[in-house]
Amino acid sequence: MIARKRIIISGYYGFSNMGDEAVLSAIVAGLREHSKKDIEITVISGAPKETQLQHGVRALSRRSIAEVLAAIRESDLVISGGGSLIQDATSFRSLLYYLWVIMQAQRFRRKVMILGQGIGPLRRKISCILARRVLDRVDIIAVRDPDSANLLKKIGVARPPIYVTADPAFLLKAEPTEQFEGDIITFALREWREAPWVEQYAIESLKQLSKELPAKIFLMAMHTPGDLEMASRIGRQVGDSVIVQKENLMPEKLLGIICASKMVVSMRLHALIFAAASGIPMLGITYDPKVESFLKSVGQENMSLEDLKSGKLPRRVLDTWHKRDVLSAQLAEKVPAIKDAAKENIRLALELLE
Question: pTM for the full model?
C-alpha cells in the first residue's frame, strides 16, 4: 500500500483576494493532476470553511497555532505559495507570520518550497536579516520573476537552488461566460493609500471614455469588499455606460470574463496576468514595481499613477485600443514559454515528495 503524502500550503488565502485564490487554485489543480502519489492537501487559511468549500481541500485556521503546528509536524512537504508573502510593504507582522510557518517546518525537519512567489519589497534591515536566515534553509526557491531572484541574492540567500519560474495563476483554467453582448473593455482598479485620489480621477476619465470608446466598460473586483465597493461608487457616478460587477466571483469566473474582453486596463497584477494568459492586450497602471516589471516582461503598455492624476488615462486607453493587434502578437510570442515556466513550479514541488 502506498503511503499518503501530506502537503501543507501557506499563503494569503481566505481573504477574498482573487489573485491569491487564483494562485492557490492553480497549485492545487497542478499537484492533483501531475502527482503519481496519493496526496492530501491542507491549506492554512484566514477562512477555513470557505477555503475548504471553494478548493476542495482540508483547511485550518491560521489563528490556531496548535492546529498549524500539528499539521506541519505530520506533513511531508510545506509549500509557501504565492503571490508576495516575503515582503514588509503592506505589513511587517504578515512577514513574520509567513517566516514563522517556514521556521516551524524547518524545526520539524520537513521539506520546504517557496513556490512561484514574488519576493519583496523588504524595506527594513531586520526584514532582510530574518528573510535571509529563514530562506537560506529551505529546500527549493522558485520565484515568479528575475527581480525577486536578484533580491534574494542581494540579501544573502545562497544555499538553496533559486529557480525563476512564473506565477502559478498562468495555469488557471477559465470558466466561460455568456454575461456580455458586444465588445467590452475590463477595468480592474483598486484603492491605494499613497494615491487616495485614484477614484476621483478614474471617474472623470471613464466619463470621457464612455463617450469615445467603441466598446462597453466593465468594472471588475479582484479583492472584495474593497474593489467591489469602489466599482459600485464609480459606476453610480459614470452612469449606465459602464457595467459593474455585482457580487464576489471566483477567479475562474473572473478569468472567463477577461477571456471575453477585447482589452484590459488594470492596477491589479493578477487581472493583468489573467489577460496575458488569455492573449488579451492590456494597459497596466503601475502603483507597485511588481506591476511594471510584469508588463515589461510581456511587452505590454503601462502608465503611472501620476499619468492618471494628470488626466492621461483616456488617451492612453485609446492608444492601446488602436495597438491591440500588435500587443496581442507580443503575447502570442511570449506567453507559451511563461506557461511552461509556471508548470515548473509543480514539477519541482512533486520532485521534493520523491
Answer: 0.95
